[in-house]
Amino acid sequence: MKNIVSPLTQVSTDGVDLADAIAQNLLTTNNVWMMLATALVFIMHLGFAGVEAGFGQAKNTVNILFKNTVTPILGIVTYGLTGFFLMYPGFEQPGWLGFDGPGWSMFWFSPADADVTTAYADGNYTYWTDFLFQAMFAATAATIVSGAIAERVKLWSYLMFTVVFVGIVYPIIGSWKWGGGALDDMGFYDFAGSTLVHSVGGWGALAGVIMVGPRIGKYINGKTIEKPGSSVPLAVIGVFLLWLGWFGFNGGSVLSADPGLVSFVLVTTSLGACAGGLGGFFAAYFAFKRLDLGMVLNGILAGLVSITAGADVINPIFALLVGFVAGILVVLSAIFLDKLKLDDVVGAVSVHLTCGVWGTLAVGIFSSNPDHSFITQLLGVLICGAAAFISALAIFFVLKKTVGIRVSEEHERSGLDSHEHGIRGYTIVYDE
């Protein structure tokens, strides 16, 4: 039997071999966790598909699932083509645009040039893991828009929006903080993306809701008409898949397998989700006088979104408070949007925009780091919000004036599945 000698036992007199072995083992451990976190974030796309298909009407199920299938496909490819390099441009001086990042050929034509050693990212993960983890985040931002404008938007228009939003808008805004740009230099803090992912996607969703308009029959004579979803069980499964994926979303944002910090982040993340569910439960009961499962589900997501900005710097007791307030806000926001006749099929604007803003501001209130300022957080929210909303509004406006963004009234009334896909999501066949 061959003897197997551990690298840690092969120690030279000056200790260089031991140091290299330790660094390599740490790289392997950290990289494995980052790849697992990437897989968890990927699962979130299945969660979004479940939530949107469950809350959407049965006649549009295939259309909704089609968009949720194509969105991560386009998101990852587009982020590889342009987004990754725009988001991490390597600013010589912190600013708003930078183009001094890694060469494009490294990704597409010279993979051997990619750094997979301990010299990359402080030895926590490789170049390839870095790209794939960030690409999953980018695709998530586009998926947020999908649910808000479901059931009446043209598929091709949505896909064109996704390409531009994920390929250009999202990464440029992200570069201002995560790429070492002006917001980072200002002291703005967003650990895993309450603003940079969720509210950016939420602003895009709001722009889409405004430009596309409400579904036919949603608002009649000042009243909001409920349009029952196709599957409550599917929506519940989707929310729990999203919660599972959030362990990777926030836990992976530690960018290492640091046992203390990762476990702390997972605790605050779960507490925020639980408190959000409770906030949605109580707020909906007082508002609607019923035990509203939909608002409990959105409350869970609201709590997750809100704690994402400060999951590593907000203590557990305050994580409960942040999540609980988010659960209340998501109900109030949904009511307010209906008052404005802004039709959001799944509550994406309320969950991701309203609670993304709240969570980012909460860092300035509850952070254990004294360097985090409420004013700085507010300024960052305003800058990112203006950039995301104006950009999304412009994209939808151009699409509306050129190819159009809304399906015909006939198609909307009879359902998008039969007209655009030729199949239905739910079919019962009886044997003759």
Write up this protein:
By secondary structure, this protein is an all-alpha fold. Helix content is 67%, strand content 1%. The protein contains 15 helices and two strands. The protein has helices at residues 16-55, 61-87, 104-108, 127-148, 155-175, 182-186, 194-212, 232-251, 259-288, 293-307, 316-339, 348-366, 374-402, 409-414, 416-421; strands at residues 219-220, 223-224.
Question: What are its keywords?
Answer:
single chain; 432 residues; mainly alpha; two-stranded antiparallel ribbon; 67% helix
Task: Give a quick rundown of the structure.
This protein is mainly α and 432 residues long. It has helices at residues 16-55, 61-87, 104-108, 127-148, 155-175, 182-186, 194-212, 232-251, 259-288, 293-307, 316-339, 348-366, 374-402, 409-414, 416-421, and strands at 219-220, 223-224.
Query: How are strands sequenced across the largest beta sheet?
Result: 1-2
**Estimated share of beta-strand residues:** under 5%
- Please tally the helical runs, counting DSSP H or I stretches of 4 or more residues: 15
Q: What is the tally of beta strands?
A: 2
Q: Report Rg.
A: 23 Å
Unreliable residue runs:
1-11
Gap from first CA to last CA: 67 Å
List the secondary-structure elements in sequence, H or E: HHHHHHHEEHHHHHHHH
What structural category do the secondary elements indicate?
mainly alpha
Shape: globular
Topology:
Blueprint: H1 16-55, H2 61-87, H3 104-108, H4 127-148, H5 155-175, H6 182-186, H7 194-212, E1 219-220, E2 223-224, H8 232-251, H9 259-288, H10 293-307, H11 316-339, H12 348-366, H13 374-402, H14 409-414, H15 416-421
Antiparallel strand pairs: 1-2
Helix pairs in contact: 1-2, 1-4, 1-8, 2-4, 2-5, 4-5, 4-7, 5-7, 5-13, 7-12, 7-13, 8-9, 8-10, 9-10, 9-11, 10-11, 10-12, 11-12, 12-13
